[in-house]
Input
Amino acid sequence: MVDSSWGQPPAPRGEIGAPRGERAAERARTAAERIAARATATGERLAARAAARAREAEERERARAAAQRHRGSGRRDVVREQRDTSGYAMVVDAARIRALAERGASVAGLAAVFGRAEEEIRRVLDGTD
Output
């Protein structure tokens, strides 16, 4: 096979395409534009990721605050009052005193809660109740 240009007179220099210096300058220009576009895209992508992280952190903070918020009955017209427990009977038995002492309650604390003398609590704990 023979190329179709064979047998044709040679083309004069400089007529094929743009001159060599201009092509190199054009390639450099397009490369610089590509680099600038890539840098801009990277900057935008990083800014978008930072904004997304900030939104997620804000949403997490809002969710955490909502989880810690005291939830009422939903009725604004009802005023909550402290329940009067003065008439309730306190169950005071040796097993309960021993169980609380095993959990770390002090003798003075048990005596104050149950309304008994410390000596009486000590006798219960010693087993001489």
Notes: Helices lie at 20-68, 94-102, 107-114, 118-126. The chain is about 60% helix and 0% strand. Residues 46 and 119 are 71 Å apart (CA to CA). The first helix runs from residue 20 to 68.
